[in-house]
Amino acid sequence: MRTPPHPSRASPDVRKKFVPKTVASVPQPGQTPPEIIRNFCIIAHIDHGKSTLADRMLQLTGVVDERSARAQYLDRMDIERERGITIKSQAVRMPWTVSEGDNTGTTYVLNMIDTPGHVDFTYEVSRSLEACEAAVLLVDAAQGIEAQTLANLYLALGADLQIIPVLNKIDLPSAQPEKYAAELAGIIGCDPSDVLHVSAKTGMGVEALLNEIVKQTPAPVGNADAPPRALIFDSVYDTYRGVVTYVRVVDGKLSHRDRIKMMSTGATHEMLEVGVISPEPVKAGDLGVGEVGYLITGVKDVRQSRVGDTVTSQIHGATEALGGYKHPNPMVFAGLYPIDGDDYPTLRDALEKLQLNDAALAYEPETSGALGFGFRIGFLGLLHMEIVRERLEREFNLDLISTAPNVVYHVTMEDGTEHEVTNPSEYPAGKIAEVREPVVKATILSPSDYIGAIMELCQSKRGQLEGMDYLSEDRVEMRYTLPLAEIVFDFFDQLKSRTKGYASLDYEPTGEQPSDLVKVDILLQGEPVDAFSAIVHKDHAYAYGVALAGKLRDLIPRQQFEVPIQAAIGARVIARETIRAIRKDVLAKCYGGDITRKRKLLEKQKEGKKRMKMVGRVEVPQEAFIAALSTGDTGDKSGKK
Ligand SMILES: Nc1nc2c(ncn2[C@@H]2O[C@H](COP(=O)(O)OP(=O)(O)OP(=O)(O)O)[C@@H](O)[C@H]2O)c(=O)[nH]1
């Protein structure tokens, strides 16, 4: 094959041919003037097509070529890909040469931040927003506005972002662009003709959207001569490189030669690398005002590089941190126990590794009389819990039992002492003056046909209607205050089934309220089984006790003696079931004198016993724990998981 002449030695025409046009004109990291930077994010309700739109933009800007494009390029985690949801935010730098209007031909640097859409990860969305000047508000043209469309819009408006309204999936036959453009324009306060129409799937309208992003997004503003300040909006653990921290530079310059300081803790670190993602990491010397990129230090644990914190340089650093740092507090707790007790050390190591990548994950060891050694784990919400559990089982090959999830209660005793209860079995005994539980502000969006069904559901879950608005003649927004404990069970499933899947839900914590709560214990043969204790509202306690006792009666096999199952509040028994005695003679069917066959049967019976847990004298099969503790399968909290 003939080697082409080196561009510098070739004739001017040939040189043109060999120097790709884009490379020459693409501004390099650290040397990009803020005037040509556009930082934006895409916000939407779950499944409205953010990741697909991001893919299309990567292709159109040439960052990912046709060949290496794969669906949801930015969703890198296996679970993200399988479930089709985004868990961690991602940021990509894309050059875009405007193809229409005033600045046609000018190349800009777009930093796109793909955000997660689920309520559990709202904190990540709010951090990503801080790193941007504009938000593309994406709405499915066949579905219209949903609860998280609104929640995310309010977050974006709160962060002072320019909102670019876009209807997606206009290729669908069921799309109703006119209707939903009017709805969208109504909530933003723009003209329906300002709403862009795209199909992330076919790519239609995406080029026009990129031009519009350049036009509408304000350029970042910052002081280039000030000490560096950069906002951490994401932080991930990489097995080979340690913690990779994603930042948006607000002032000054972050250089790979700097030693840096985390302003919330004062911890300093050596900088090993800075760079940008495009779409794979590209090393750079510096990152200047308005730029979005990553930095790598020797840090091995994401908790030392917290989302929301400000990075500055150790020498001549900034003195004032950027606002808005908030520590994500776990909202839901559950016990996780290995089914095989020998796996406890593996579970401990696995949690340690997972925490490197998940700053919101909190855990501490706990022991249960029934389940043995395990951990009490704090999660941001139920989806977070499911994901952690799935990752533990899948990535570390563990079989786990999880106890029913519960929220954090604050208990004040009559003598004035305070207790924080994250595990029902630690509920204090004695004279209680007040119990407070967390409450949330829930927003439900639904076709107006289901108002009655939603009200009924919320009432049964101790909800308080705070307000109701019609978004259009047949869509309504309902606002409720609800105890978080009622939402973490099966509220969402019930809402979906009662509204044929049409309602959507978003919620945010709003504090605590005093409530009439009691602890219900389950006793087997008079012995309390800690794993089954639950804190429930007084009005639901009876139904809960009856349902769980009934369920355990069906799940626990008959033993050689009678086993009473009781549900009790303190010393007062509220429900009772009995498992009648049986003497199971495995040899009964084995008449005749074949001794080897008899021995085999006895051996088999012994094997079976190994999978039982002894609770007092009662043998409880693992399946009984799993089935009884599985979320939302109990009494008035029934529903599918
Ligand atoms: N017909 C059609 N389908 C689309 C379009 N955009 C996205 N989809 C489909 O809609 C589904 C959801 O798309 P995603 O891109 O995963 O949605 P998302 O908003 O990123 O979801 P999360 O990351 O979970 O918040 C996928 O099955 C896509 O193939 C579109 O323009 N037209």
Automatic annotation (TrEMBL):
Protein name, as recorded: Elongation factor 4
NCBIfam families hit by this protein: lepA, small_GTP
EC number, UniProt record: 3.6.5.n1
Localization per Swiss-Prot or TrEMBL: Cell membrane
Record keywords: Cell membrane, Elongation factor, GTP-binding, Hydrolase, Membrane, Nucleotide-binding, Protein biosynthesis
Domain Tr-type G: 35-221
Function according to Swiss-Prot or TrEMBL: Required for accurate and efficient protein synthesis under certain stress conditions. May act as a fidelity factor of the translation reaction, by catalyzing a one-codon backward translocation of tRNAs on improperly translocated ribosomes. Back-translocation proceeds from a post-translocation (POST) complex to a pre-translocation (PRE) complex, thus giving elongation factor G a second chance to translocate the tRNAs correctly. Binds to ribosomes in a GTP-dependent manner.
Organism: Nocardioides jiangsuensis
Signal peptide feature range: none
Family assignment from sequence similarity: Belongs to the TRAFAC class translation factor GTPase superfamily. Classic translation factor GTPase family. LepA subfamily.
First-listed, main subcellular location of the protein, grouped into a coarse class: membrane
Classification of source organism: Bacteria, Bacillati, Actinomycetota, Actinomycetes, Propionibacteriales
GO terms of molecular function: hydrolase activity; translation elongation factor activity
Membrane-topology annotation of the record: Peripheral membrane protein
Lipid biosynthesis among keywords: no
Residues that coordinate or bind GTP: 47-52, 168-171
